[in-house]
Design brief:
Radius of gyration: 22 Å
Structural class: mainly alpha
Distance between the termini: 28 Å
Largest sheet: 2 strands, antiparallel
Number of domains: 2
Number of strands: 2
Strand order of the largest sheet: 1-2
Shape: extended
Helix content: 40-55%
């Protein structure tokens, strides 16, 4: 959220304490989500204007659906897969690499900037192995390479035929477990 958005949220919050009712309209869901999170939980309500067949309509807005990031959805998909086999294993396989990428970008920002490919990070880990500026130890680097080799089969940047790649449920289950374990460290 930008400084301008944060300042606006704070000013509206101060204003809300001085009035009986406040209505906030915006086209920016991230801004509205921030407003929702900072509002008095006992005195807030929310609706959205939704497109309908003949124009638009008002309906309840389930804010927490928009508070959840795409990374959160993918991570939940992997965790759920361990318990229940979803109807679309392909989505699970396609989620492996983005989950790894997000983790690496947060855990190793000096080595994997936004927009960098995960393969570049893995190569850097191999190049720096055993040196004073080592990024990952040999075992974690090797495990990342193994998971990445599997995940790349289901990623559009690394396999043009990713949509037709055959999925073996046992292999997928193993790589989901390994991905979740690797991202916990």
């Amino acid at each position: 959220m930008s400084t301008r958005h944060l300042t606006t949220v704070q000013e509206i919050g101060r204003f809300a304490q001085r009035v009986g009712q406040l209505i906030v309209l915006s086209h920016s869901k991230p801004f509205l989500c921030q407003m929702w999170e900072s509002a008095d939980k006992t005195a807030r309500a929310v609706i959205e204007i939704a497109r309908s067949e003949d124009g638009s309509t008002l309906r309840g807005w389930v804010v927490h659906h928009d508070l959840i990031s795409e990374h959160d959805r993918r991570h939940a998909l992997l965790r759920d897969y361990l318990v229940n086999t979803p109807p679309d294993n392909r989505k699970v396989a396609e989620a492996l690499r983005p989950v790894l990428e997000r983790f690496v970008r947060v855990a190793y920002p000096d080595w994997c900037a936004p927009g960098d490919m995960l393969g570049k990070f893995a190569n850097l880990c191999q190049q720096h192995a055993g040196k004073s500026d080592q990024i990952l130890d040999a075992a974690r680097t090797h495990e990342l390479d193994g998971i990445l080799a599997y995940a790349n089969r289901f990623h559009h940047d690394t396999n043009r035929a990713y949509e037709t790649e055959v999925i073996n449920d046992g292999q997928l289950l193993d790589f989901v477990r390994r991905t979740l374990a690797w991202t916990r460290r």
